[in-house]
Specification:
12 helices; 378 residues; 6-stranded parallel sheet; 31% helix; 15 strands
Length: 378
Amino acid sequence: MEFEPKKAQGPVVKPGEFAFSAAGLDHGHIVGMCAALVEAGATLKTVYDPDPAKVEGFLKRFPTARAADCLERLLDDPETRLVAGAAVPSERCALGLEVMAHGKDYFTDKTPLTTLAQLEAAKEAVKRTGRKYMCYYSERLHSESAEFAGQLIAAGAIGRVIHVDGFGPHRIGPLSGRPGWFWKREKTGGILSDIGSHQIEQFLFYAGEEDARVQFSRAANYHNPEYPEFDDFGDCALVGKNGATSYFRVDWFTPAGLRTWGDGRTFILGTEGYIELRKYVDVGVEPYAADCVILVDGRGEHRFSARGKTGFPFFGKLILDCLNRTENAMTQPHCFKAAELCVQAQDNAVDITPGENRGWKRDFSPPSDSGEEKENMR
């Protein structure tokens, strides 16, 4: 078939040509972020975190980096072009503002920020400094099946994308293994802002939408009443400016029997076919089958394995964007629009937690027959 995965190029720069540093090691995603940049040719120079134990563990994975004794030492380094960070979500924007103020580009874990006020501050800083504020939306950027889906759509394999369904279940694991901030809404931004950011970004990308609005969003704490600020379930529907629609569900209910942390799936409907991504596991299939891509079009049914085929081109493109001041990896408006929508989804979510745990926020009584009510419904 002509639809075969296109392999990403290897290192895009020579050793030492693009140095970056890491700051804020609160989430394990920082390892994947840094490893992918190194694989694309970047040189990891320095790391800082106020917790020496985190730094020690990080240096075991990246032994050629050196530890900085303070954040300022890292920010003042003239050789560091970009700072990668995975701080506590509510602190990611503040770190980014410091990074950009020191003339460096910023690459943060998802969610990139947790409030609309932070979003406005980040936008202003980008405009003022000319620096980048990029985000690691890993469920697309660090998934070969997701990368191949983008290639298929760009090649016209399913026509115009009109709907995207996303399912992002996660395993919560031993409760004692989670840091205290994990359970606090103010720190994480909530489930729709946090892991929901992956799903919203994918919808905008696959549907080619530059803007969208949240039609409805819901969140609940079904199984963790001892942590009343925590959402273990959320879902949301969106409609794009050009008419494409999306529904996604995120949760913390991956059962212990699954071989991986979550059965992440994406369904992409086009006018001439559809794509299904079984990103992390193809349930019931041996051996361990990940990055499975299913395409159904006018000619038949097609199944691909993208594992080891496409690589992760975003990271090399990001390096070149930083050097050349281009926007080929991801545009700044796209990054910020995904962030804006995930915060709006969380802020406006209806709390559907049963019982008296957090209380209802929605009146479920039948609508009246008044003209005003009908107009509102319309």
